[in-house]
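If your schedule permits, I should be very grateful for your opinion on a structural question. What I wish to show you is a protein chain and, alongside it, a tokenised description of its three-dimensional fold. Would you kindly read the sequence against the tokens and tell me how you understand this chain to fold? Here, with my thanks, is the record as I have it:

===
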Amino acid sequence: MLAAQLADTRLTEAQTLKPANAAGGGYVLMATVPRGWRLRWWTLSKSGDIEILGPKDLRQEIADLLTEATARYREPRARSLKGTA
């Protein structure tokens, strides 16, 4: 479904979207896009469906953000919010 969306609504005119050669299927998207909060926001919003392969520093940045987010859900809450379990 995401591949169809990316084919219809391109991130950039010069993007390429090709089927992956991996046994699990999927697609490989190659695009040059500006770095910044919009790219991070979009990437994190699609994190259940995509994997950043490169550039290496962007891949690491996203991995670090996801690791921090995961830790927040694994740690016990210091105090519960009023009206929640």
